[in-house]
């Protein structure tokens, strides 16, 4: 009787992992990939060295008169050294700029704490309850010995962050309600939601801002008036809520019908079903488009310049009105581009972290494998 040997599995063939082998397999594996690689290398050779030289080697650094910058062949970072406070804080009084700086630190600290699920407790809620009034007091003043600064003088990065954060915090729950209303079985509720969403999404944000600035005051009772900042904030909230509603509705449609039937079989009410079963899954599915909407909304705050509010972009443009420093557009826009990139990248990185954290199904599949 022949003994049956236990089956053996041969190890997978070793793969060369040297950089040269990776380049050969990924960049020069076919003739057209080789041609494309050579073309891109040639373009990079033509563009990158001159850009790096302009940014660093030929640039004027730190404090220098504008005449030196005009004679230089590179970037004038002395312009940023001279105007960065105006770009960041706008027309806020120079001696009081520590107040918006502290307000931004408080706001960003609260946002960073809110991104850590381990800190979701009553102390975080208390921090928001104390932090938001503190930010308002710091920005406006008028009490506690602080000089009053009207919001017509607010600008720069604090205004951009304020419009974006307040707008998204208010628009997100409103968008959830609109998404649920559009999928409602009640025809009147569904019709109102559809009309609102399609009407707002059918016009550009610039139109909404003009309407909020010029049309809304016509319908207010005599003696009642909102300042430009409040009207702009209302218009941006309406705009963001409509887009978030459609994003969340897409997540709701992706939930299998069995989830709804299982919730109904448990005897849950409509709001219990949405809060405990449906919405958590829909929001998890919708994280990428939701963050994409957040990033777009953050950048769209630059449009408030059309109604006379000087956000980060508006303050950068205003800084170029100085006759002594006129013409250094590239440096100004590169500076604010880095600020926008930082905040947008942080939102994108956090969304990817949140997706990995909430991706329970793939994690279970990995554990089973």
Walkthrough of the structure:
The protein is mostly helical. The protein has a domain at 80-93 and 163-359: MetI-like (MetI-like fold). The chain has 16 helices and one strand. The chain has helices at residues 19-26, 31-57, 66-71, 77-89, 98-114, 122-140, 156-182, 187-201, 205-219, 228-253, 257-265, 270-285, 287-300, 312-319, 329-358, 360-368, and one strand at residues 310-311. Helix 7 (156-182) packs across helix 10. The chain is globular and about 75 Å long. The chain starts with 18 loop residues before the first helix and ends with a helix. The relative contact order is 0.09. Mean pLDDT is 87; it is low at 365-369.
H/E order of the elements?
A: HHHHHHHHHHHHHEHHH
Distance between the termini: 37 Å
Instruction: List low-confidence stretches.
Output: 365-369
Say what the CATH topology of the domain at 80-93 and 163-359 is.
Answer: MetI-like fold
Number of helices: 16
What structural category characterises the helix and strand content?
Answer: mainly alpha
Beta-strand percent range = under 5%
Using DSSP, what is the number of strands?
1
According to CATH, the homologous superfamily of the domain at 80-93 and 163-359 is MetI-like
Mean pLDDT: 87
